[in-house]
Write a structure and sequence with these properties.
The complex is a heterodimer of chains A (295) and B (470). Chain A is mainly alpha-helical. Chain A has one domain: MetI-like fold, CATH 1.10.3720. Chain A contains 14 helices and no strands. In chain A, helix 4 runs antiparallel to helix 11 and helix 11 packs antiparallel against helix 14. The longest helix of chain A has 32 residues. Chain A is flat and about 75 Å long. Chain B has 20 helices and 10 strands. In chain B, strands 4, 5, 6, 7, 8 and 10 form a 6-stranded mixed sheet that branches. With 470 residues, chain B is α/β, with parallel strands linked by helices. In chain B, strand 1, helix 2 and strand 2 form a beta-alpha-beta unit. In chain B, helix 14 crosses helix 15 and helix 19 runs antiparallel to helix 20. In chain B, 43% of the residues lie in helices and 11% in strands. Chain B folds into 2 domains: 178 residues, D-Maltodextrin-Binding Protein, domain 2 (3-Layer(aba) Sandwich), CATH 3.40.190; 222 residues, 3-Layer(aba) Sandwich (D-Maltodextrin-Binding Protein, domain 2), CATH 3.40.190. Classes of the chains: A mainly alpha (295), B alpha/beta (470). Chains A and B meet through helix 2, helix 11, helix 13 and helix 14 of A and helix 1, helix 3, helix 14 and helix 19 of B. Chain A: Pfam families: BPD_transp_1. Chain A: It is a multi-pass membrane protein. Chain A: One of its GO terms (biological process) is transmembrane transport.
């Protein structure tokens, strides 16, 4: 009896993982497996029947100019945004980790946008940037400087950069909070010792703070990569993928393909998007591991 | 036995888990693939709840398939924002008379997309009040066929309305009931037009001249205002102009057949000097001459209505559905309504006067008979009078004649000179007016060097739209 109790006790941690694994299986693994199955069919999303079409949906993706453009938009947004978010978040965190007057208020203001839905935030910015009666244009008019205004959201080459900027403005606070938590975990003694040894501020940041912040950097990079590569809401609110298809990301392309009765194909693109997320995340992890070892 | 994993394995599992978490959600969007009833045949079920009372012969708006005392809950998916309050009022009146019935209205801006999701997830609403139910739902007999409701069709102001709401693939069936006839045309600012002495422009040349006059003499007024961020507004321009011209040449039914069959010879979509190319050239010329707003691709439908309501635009091309919002923005707006000038030489000016405010009932609903009774109430004379006034459009029912709009006189005069299409030009479901509008957005932001480039892309997208129709 005692042995049985001990055995149960030893294995308890494994049993405790069962509910979480079950939920993961039901809500993530099952849809993923079903999704892969549907990606091999010509299902239109409604008809009771469909046929297996092998890999033709995947091949079609690479022959569709619009799909390739959506892939480029996704990669541009998904790779630039995390870099900017981490850099700006770190700068804010370093600045606000000092004893400055009003730093609590600044932290709150910087973080506040992150708690609002990206869709709502997108619409707020749309009201600000609207080319007809947006707040920015109205303010410029007051100062007689409306010639400075450009219809950024209506210009294909510029709209994506506006979206990246809005996304940066919204989520920089989130990155900052993670960095701040990391900074506060660094012992003041270590920094003090470095100072005594003659290290300047930037030397301390580069040689001591950065290596000790690696866990926070890792979390920021990975979460921002995943979030940015799956971007949907902010684009929908600001440009709806336009003008034309110039800011259409893969997730918007998937939704439209699906609603246009091309569900098998849309699911194949979703499976490809899994790889689009997986590959940069894996590369980032490998690079950070290497940096860890080198450091 | 040890259960510890190496750090590398943990990292890999965490990576794959995180990516699976993100991609699983997206891949799962297409979920509901197989179903028990059809396993082995890889079934993408569009299941609705099983009908226990699906006896078509017993179902009619006047039949009583549900006992009065039995509580019934009906759901309505509404895609017309202007009708939300009106529908709530009707629900209130109806449920006061039928205390056992509760009716829940859900408004969705993208109602047709939401409907697809609801049907695919087995949550089809009992009633759908939607301007355009996707054709595939009718093809699968998911909606009640009203063709046998003789008493209703006898009430129509014009017998041809019945054929104009016939199913595209099976003309003997009518899967929805119309409420009003909605006209689309050219709104104009009466004050500006009178001041500049502009006459009704029936041809494209006359229209161009009218716009040029506005530009030359009214610096602060946009001659023709486009609200292209809402891409459907641009997609509809293609339906009114080149596809409308096709209806004039072939006749409405023949044009529709050619559109449905994608009869390349009759459509001539990429033909040199053809309708699509002419449309592209017209828009490019307007843009180059400053006759449309510079932000035509990024200004919204709401901006467009603001512009005509506030006298900042001389002309906008819109449907009668926009009138109530224009008057809300400016109750004193002095506006008139002309047919859309003919794009092609030899054509008449064009209007669509098609049945609107369609209501469909889910054939597979457990509450189908009760839903049909509510629809019977909705199309009753008094209720229809109020709907006609709300929508600023004439009712399709003889007994529901009302003073429907400040533009009713204009429309009566327009009908004498215009080619009036009783059906919208058909578009493939994979290239609907929303998608077509995106191609026009590209035209407005100079993505095409020549009108022929636009016509080529349009044709490619159009052809592709058939393969995605499912």
């Amino acid at each position: 009896m005692l042995r049985l109790a001990r055995r149960i006790n030893e294995r308890l941690h494994r049993y405790m993982a069962v509910p979480a694994l079950a939920l993961f299986a039901v809500f993530f693994v099952t849809p993923l497996v079903k999704g892969i199955r549907i990606s091999l069919t010509d299902w239109n999303g409604l008809a009771p029947d469909y046929h297996y079409v092998g890999l033709s949906n995947f091949i079609e993706f690479f022959h569709d100019d619009r799909a390739i453009h959506a892939l480029k938009v996704t990669l541009t947004f998904g790779l630039i945004s995390p870099v900017l978010l981490c850099a700006a978040g770190l700068l804010y965190a370093l600045l606000l980790d000092n004893r400055l007057r009003g730093r609590g208020a600044v932290r709150t203001f910087v973080y506040l946008p992150a708690i609002i839905s990206p869709l709502i935030m997108g619409y707020v910015w749309l009201l600000l940037l609207n080319s007809e009666n947006g707040a920015l244009l109205e303010v410029l008019k007051i100062f007689g400087r409306e010639s400075v205004y450009r219809d950024w959201l209506g210009t294909p080459d510029e709209a994506l950069w506006v979206i990246i900027a809005v996304n940066l403005w919204q989520f920089v606070g989130y990155a900052m909070i993670i960095f701040l938590a990391g900074l506060q975990g660094i012992s003041a003694d270590v920094l003090e010792a470095a100072k005594v040894d003659g290290a300047g501020y930037w030397t301390s940041v580069r040689r001591i703070v950065a290596p000790l912040l690696m866990p926070a950097i890792r979390i920021n990079v990975i979460t921002n990569l995943i979030g940015s590569l799956g971007v949907f809401d902010v684009i929908t609110a600001l440009t709806d993928g336009g003008p034309g298809y110039s800011t259409e990301s893969m997730s918007i392309y998937i939704m439209r393909s699906s609603f246009n009765g091309h569900t098998g194909y849309a699911t194949a693109v979703a499976v490809l998007m899994f790889l689009v997320i997986l590959i940069p995340v894996s590369v980032a992890l490998r690079l950070m591991k290497q940096a860890d070892q080198d450091g | 036995m040890s259960y510890t994993w190496s750090a590398a394995s943990k990292r890999w599992i965490a990576t794959i888990g995180a990516a699976a978490l993100a991609a699983g959600l997206l891949a799962g969007c297409g979920g509901n693939g197989g179903n028990g009833a059809n396993e082995g045949q890889a079934s993408g079920e569009a299941s609705t709840s099983a009908s226990s009372s699906s006896n078509p012969s017993a179902a009619s708006p006047s039949s009583s398939g549900t006992e009065a005392s039995k509580p019934v809950k009906l759901t309505i998916l509404n895609g017309t924002v202007e009708a939300v309050d009106w529908l709530n009022e009707q629900i209130k009146t109806y449920t006061a008379q039928h205390p056992n019935v509760t009716i829940e209205q859900e408004f969705q801006k993208s109602a047709s997309d939401v409907l697809k999701v609801k049907i695919a997830s087995g949550d089809a609403p009992d009633i759908v009040a939607l301007a355009q139910v996707p054709q595939e739902f009718y093809d699968q007999d998911l909606y009640y066929d009203f063709s046998g409701e003789t008493a209703l069709w006898d009430r129509l102001t014009n017998a041809s309305i019945k054929s104009s709401v016939s199913d595209t693939s099976r003309p003997e069936k009518q899967f929805y009931l119309p409420m009003t006839v909605s006209y689309t045309g050219l709104y104009y600012n009466k004050d500006i037009v009178a001041e500049l002495g502009i006459e009704r422009p029936d041809t494209w040349e006359a229209f161009t001249q009218a716009l040029q006059t506005v530009k030359d003499k009214k610096n602060d007024v946009t001659p023709l205002y486009l609200g292209g961020k809402d891409s459907w507004t641009l997609g509809q321009l293609v339906q009114y102009l080149p596809l409308g011209s096709l209806q004039q040449e072939l006749g409405i039914e023949e044009a529709n057949k050619a559109l449905i069959a994608n009869d390349a010879a009759k459509l001539g979509l990429d033909q040199t000097g053809g309708r699509i190319e002419t449309f592209a050239k017209a828009l490019m010329d307007f843009k180059a001459a400053g006759l449309v707003n510079k932000n035509g691709a990024s200004a919204s439908y709401d901006n467009q209505l603001d512009a005509i309501a506030g006298g900042k635009a001389a002309f906008v091309i819109q449907g009668m559905w926009a009138l109530s919002d224009i008057l809300k923005k400016n109750p004193d707006a002095n506006i008139g309504f002309w047919p859309i000038p003919a794009l092609m030489a030899g054509d008449k000016p064009y209007m669509i006067g098609s049945p609107d405010g369609s209501v469909s009932v889910s054939e597979k609903s457990d509450n189908r008979d009760e839903a049909l009774k509510f629809v019977d109430f909705l199309v009753s004379a008094d209720v229809q009078k109020s709907y006609s006034t709300l929508r600023n459009s004439p009712s399709v029912y003889k007994d529901a004649e009302a003073d429907w709009s400040i533009l009713s006189r204009d429309v009566t005069a327009d009908l004498d000179v215009a080619f009036v299409a009783s059906r919208w030009p058909w578009t493939p479901s994979g290239y609907n007016s929303d998608s077509i509008g995106r191609t026009v957005q590209e035209l407005l932001v100079d993505a095409y060097k020549t009108p022929a480039d636009f016509a080529k892309v349009f044709k490619d997208n159009w052809d592709k739209g058939y393969t995605t129709a499912g």
